[in-house]
Amino acid sequence: MARVADPAGRAMSSADPIMPHALVLAGSRPGVPDPVATSEGVAHKALVDVGGMPMLARVLRSLRDAGIEHIAVAADHPEVLSLAYAFSAIPLAPGAGPSASVAKGFATMGPPLLVTTADHALLQPQWITEFVADTPDEADVAVLLARREAVERAVPGSRRTWLRFADGAWSGCNLFLLNSLRAERAIATWQSVEAERKRPWRIAARLGLGTLTSYLLGRLTLAEAVARLGNRVNLVAAVVAARDGLAAVDVDKPDDLVQVRQILGA
User: Fold this and answer.
1) Could you tell me the residue ranges of all domains in the chain?
2) In what helix (H) or strand (E) does residue 4 lie, and over which residues does it extend?
3) Which of 182, 221, 229, 265 lies at a 20 to 30 A Cα distance from 79?
């Protein structure tokens, strides 16, 4: 399904495919060494070589090959910015955290905006186009997640952090679609959740007692949880299931890098 933006900023179906803008998060935490960059002896994780090219270059190439014309890179490291320029991407000063960087990108580029990360080294153009096509037209926000069965089929023995719901276990894929102007409300919620990450009871309280009880009793599906979270801030939020379990593989630690290189080598 092709998508364009209506006057309110929501993506809609169209016979002429128009892809969203894209934002790549490539910031770093000041004073906190990244274990992947350190293990590889480079200045920034986005510059780590994977399959003969820096990780960030692989991500930017996949976005371009998916038909995305306008790309911004949230980064402050000179070498990372140089790499962004090489792909004609817009440099964007990162915020204090991921959500702040997304807020800046959304304010700069507007919807529909695809968000991903510089360490999504296996990112494929097909995953991007499928995600955009599979996102419901009415969704203000969509997130791509992979079922555990799909991930383990693609990468047997992979150790992941699973989100466990009534409809199974899921893993994030570092792909988000901010599909309308109302998506700004989701970003604001994300920022407040980041601020309260050391006080998880406040985050849980946002779900409401009924939703929290359903989750604890094992009755809540992931789609229901995301939809209810969206309802609390008056927007439509949707989960899109990844067609390829590999979409859940990124490079957070040195072991992930070894795995990604093995996958590409095979």
Assistant:
1) 2-149+159-249
2) strand 2-5
3) 265
The one-letter code for the residue type at 228 is R
Strand-strand pairing, 71-74 and 141-147: unpaired
Q: Based on the number of CB atoms within 10 Å of its own CB, is 266 exposed (0-12), middle (13-18) or buried (19 or more)?
A: exposed
Model-wide pTM > 0.90: no
More confident residue, 213 or 253: 253
Distance CA 215, CA 236 (A): 20
CA-CA distance, 225 to 237, in Å (whole number)? 10
Q: 186 near 237, Cβ under 8 Å?
A: yes
Inter-residue long-range contacts of 224-232, CB under 8 Å, 24+ positions, other chains counted: 225/165, 226/143, 229/189, 230/140, 230/141, 230/186, 232/206, 232/207, 232/208
Output DSSP code: residue 238.
E
Q: How many DSSP H helices and E strands does the chain contain?
A: 11, 12
91 and 60 Cβ atoms separated by less than 8 Å: no
Give residue-wise pLDDT tens across range 239-252. 999 999 999 999 99
pLDDT digits 0-9 by tens, 101-130:
999 999 999 999 999 999 999 999 999 999
Q: pLDDT of 153-162, one tens digit each?
A: 998 877 777 8
For residue 26, which of 52, 54, 53 has the smallest C-alpha distance? 54
Tokens for 256? 């992930």
Q: What is the CA radius of gyration of the chain?
A: 18
pLDDT of res. 162:
84
CATH 3.40.50.300 fits 2-149+159-249, yes or no: no
Give dist(CA 208, CA 194) in Å, integer. Answer: 18
DSSP 247: G
